[in-house]
Amino acid sequence: MTPTRPLTPHRPLIAIPARFAATTSALRYAAEVNARALVEAVWRAGGEPVSVHPAAGEVAARLARFDGVLLPGGGDLAPHRYGATDTHATVYDVDETQDAFDLAVARETLALGLPLLAVCRGLQVVNVALGGTLEQDMGGPEREHRHLVHPVTLRPASEVARATGAEKVDASCYHHQRVDRLGTGLEVTATAVDGTAEALELIGARGWFTAVQWHPEDTAADDPAQQNLFDALVRAARNRS
């Protein structure tokens, strides 16, 4: 009798919108990429990270095959996306195609009830997708959160506190913008010492959802609280499938 091969445990498919990169020397041409630390954190959690091409149209149909979504960090949203009539000099790496796709992904993911983890720019995208606005610049090196690891206080019993298993974490940040006006239905569930909104959740969300302004992938390999965010996403995706 031929022995049967053990079945490979199903890895939930986690969609991660790719980021446009103008130069990637090893590939010779411009590329669509995702940070290695990010995809490795999803893999460690038991998920199958899949980069998704940022193209307009049929977003809901494209997402339907996935078990969860991760909206990653990246450049700034175009200020006109949240109603601003001017653009601060520090706004960088704006790409209209990327903006349109990410905003559509945020809206469709929430509408479909797919589990969603939004990171840094991803948090800002969700806020804008739900009608919120952003502070275009936090005020220069003495106030921005670039190359900074700082303490963040999580609201007890919030989704982000349950996911991390903590009420205070050391968060690795890289951003010069932050939430100004909250989008419809969103609430702040974590803050930095300076009052910056560091996590958002959606009242009455159809599926598991949390958004963090920091980059949990930076330290997830060594910090269980940060890895737990990816574990929670994949667990919710597996339970849904």
From TrEMBL:
<dbReference type="GO" id="GO:0016787">
    <property type="term" value="F:hydrolase activity"/>
</dbReference>
<dbReference type="InterPro" id="IPR044668">
    <property type="entry name" value="PuuD-like"/>
</dbReference>
<keyword id="KW-0378">Hydrolase</keyword>
<dbReference type="InterPro" id="IPR029062">
    <property type="entry name" value="Class_I_gatase-like"/>
</dbReference>
<dbReference type="Pfam" id="PF07722">
    <property type="entry name" value="Peptidase_C26"/>
</dbReference>
<protein>
    <submittedName>
        <fullName>Gamma-glutamyl-gamma-aminobutyrate hydrolase family protein</fullName>
    </submittedName>
</protein>
<dbReference type="InterPro" id="IPR011697">
    <property type="entry name" value="Peptidase_C26"/>
</dbReference>
